[in-house]
Amino acid sequence: MEPQFAIETHGLTRRFGSFTAVENADICVERGSIYGLLGPNGSGKTTLIRMLCGILRPTSGTATVMGYELGPGTDEIKHHIGYMSQQFSLYGDLSVMENLNFYTRAYSVPRAKAAQRIEEVVELTGIHNYRDRLARNLSGGWRQRLALACALVHEPKLLFLDEPTAGIDPVARRALWNLLFELSNRGHTFFVTTHYMDEAERCTHVGYIYFSRMIANGTPAELKEMPEVTPTGLERMRVMCDRQPQAMGFINGLDYVRDATIFGDSLHVLAEEGSGERLRSALADNGFGHVHVDSIPPSLEDVFVTLTRTMDEARSV
Amino acid sequence: MFRGFSAIVYKETIHILRDPKTLLLMLVIPGIQLTIFGYAIQMDVKHIPTVFYNLDGREASRELIDSFVNTGYFDIVDQAYSDDELTGLIVRGRAKVGIKIPPDYSDLTALGRHADVQVLIDGSDSTVAMQALNVSNAIALRKSFAVIQQRLPGQTQPVEFRPRVLFNPDMKTANFMVPGLIGIVLQVVTMFLTAFAVVREKENGTLEQLMVTPVSRLGLMVGKLAPYACIGAFEVCMVVLLMRFMFQVPIAGSITLLAGFSLLFLFTSLGLGLMISTIATNQVQAMQIAFLVMLPSVLLSGFMFPQESMPLPIYVIGQVLPVTYFIRVLRGIILRDAGFMELWPQGIGLIIIGGFLLTVSAGRFRKTLG
Q1: Which of B95, B54, B47 is nearest to B71 (CA)?
Q2: What residue ranges do the domains of chain B occupy?
Q3: Do residue A78 and residue B206 have CB atoms under 8 angstroms apart?
Q4: Residue A1 has what pLDDT?
Q5: What's the predicted TM-score (pTM) here?
């Protein structure tokens, strides 16, 4: 029987000396989902991925990945997972095909099957025009596609991608995500770390790690409904008006407003429930033109900003 | 156990072939080293620039000067006319040896009386000084004996040593240096190349990527070493051929035994490279550590200087270097026709050091990956 979860961890902890990189992480990733792990730099994302890939031993806690319990001598798991690390880690002096050949051999893909498998991933990632190009001469987006292709040659059911879209252009970013959705439809499970909120919104499940701790876990919709994000008696509003920077300062000074932040062409305001009308007239009375206020659900960014702030307040007490 | 071995060999071979500059350099370096050590370095110093200050000037004194020149070790480059001038010429570096013949030299020798000839030697180059000292003492001895024979006809030399130099009768420096050089060249190539090959993967983050694959640690290590072992084996053949046909050093012993010991040394030297790669985190560090190993390998292994005269702690350092044992083997087989029965203790030394290096680096290899 196939286990329900691709990844299941309990109290997973890793310390480096006195520094705790990951503390008591409990994560469940369902099969076929795209799990997005978010968190600031240095919060423990890469350490967590390394542990789940079996290249870093946890200090304590347990983890089951694709039905295999992590621990010494569980090399079998390596045949079922793929890993694409943060930095470009293919061989620059090998061509695209040579890199793929190498990885099929490294994963002991049977010779008879290897050629066909390589054709499949080349086709999938659309890298066929660059077969003989040295990997170091590929642009950022194509490098990532090659890295993905190499991570896919052995048909892993679970893929770990550590900031796969860092430093590549928006078009390549979009293309990579379309690829992930396609693979997800074919039943692959993804564990992705990212800094981009729009990418997080596309994930089926999201986790947020902050200062080595998992502080949120769930579908984007579930996270947006967390009581900590929009405390009772408060509501989120979008405010559009002229002179937004000044407006932000003004709104932040109002006693019924908890928080106001600029989001592109509008302001997101967390204020007392039903105070929208008051806010609109206050702005109009103080000389801000074209005022428009409406109620909105929180975005994931709102969720993480609020959670981070709550955590910081708790830490500083 | 060796899972992924063929994959690593495949990849390493492409790395090597795609970097022809490094490969070429590795093939050119032995040639350069052979030329330097084989041709340029001469422990046997001849043609030492010499000046004389002849206060006597008669026939006997000129004969004395001729006997210096005739040895081939001294070349008369100038003549001095005062003590100051004699020392001045040595200080200026014009000459390394100054001979001062006293005004009564001819009279004293004719009478069979004691005559002092002063020989000034520039000690700033100890090799030259030593040679000049030995040869001038020998000349003095021969001259003295000639004088005694003149006065007591029929008298033979009471004791005479008849030394015979075995194995390298002409005492050619090349015969001494070039066999040892095989060890040095082999160590340079294998140690540097393996150290870099592993450290580069650490630097580029590809090692981490490899750890996620089912490639085993042993498969990775042996797979990385194998191509460099082949290059090393090729270099041994090249250097042996150069030695035999360019430097005309005859190989007295068994070629098979030489090949066997070379392979043994190869694995020890690769272990040394692997060890360096587990200590260094980047290529600059690897380079520095490798040089740190190379320096004693050249100076303390007996390759250039005899180990017998080294102070004990320095001697011990020489004994932990694998190349020390290999150089003994090389000289044994090539010059003395030594067989396995004479050389097996060196083989044990290599096996112990090599086994230690490979075991420890394998252990450290695991640790560096967490």
Answers
A1: B47
A2: 5-41+171-368, 48-151
A3: no
A4: 46
A5: 0.77
